[in-house]
Write a structure and sequence with these properties.
- This protein has a domain at about 70-124.
- The protein has helices at about 50, 60-70, 70-90, 90-124.
- The chain has about 120 residues and is mainly alpha-helical.
- The chain is elongated.
- The chain is built from 4 helices and no strands.
- About 20% of the residues are buried.
- Keywords: Membrane, Transmembrane, Transmembrane helix.
- It holds the Pfam family CD225.
Length: about 120
């Protein structure tokens, strides 16, 4: 009876795989293996119906609010941006929530800014 060959000891996890062993996994730092990069999911393509159905961003009012009273205009600009992004991603509930916040902040910022302007014109 021929002698039995001892099985090769298992390779340690930290040692690189042998170059002549095709079944061995590639080493982590091996330049021959392409690195897989995590890709961001692409924006979904919107249909014409989705493009027509969107929450208002109030961009003009937001610009006016930033000029009139920046302490409320800047948060309005932030919510305007969030509304725009939610519209682009077809997240309608988020878009309408942020649109409502943008509208209210715009109105308050413009009214406060006009109040300050009238005060300085009348009493200064």
């Amino acid at each position: 009876m021929p002698p039995k060959h001892a099985a090769a000891p298992p390779a340690a996890e930290n040692t690189p795989a042998a170059a002549d062993d095709p079944a061995a996994p590639a080493a982590e730092n091996d330049p021959a293996t392409p690195a897989t990069e995590a890709k961001e999911p692409e924006d979904p393509i919107q249909t014409p119906e989705e493009l027509a159905f969107h929450a208002p961003t109030y961009l003009f009012l937001t610009i006016l609010a930033v000029i009139m009273f920046p302490p409320l205009g800047l948060p309005a600009a932030f919510f305007c941006y969030k509304t725009w992004r939610a519209n682009k991603k077809s997240e309608w509930q988020q878009a309408y929530v942020n649109s409502s916040r943008t509208g209210w902040l715009d109105v308050f910022a413009i009214l406060i800014g006009l109040g300050i302007l009238y005060y300085y014109i009348l009493f200064a």
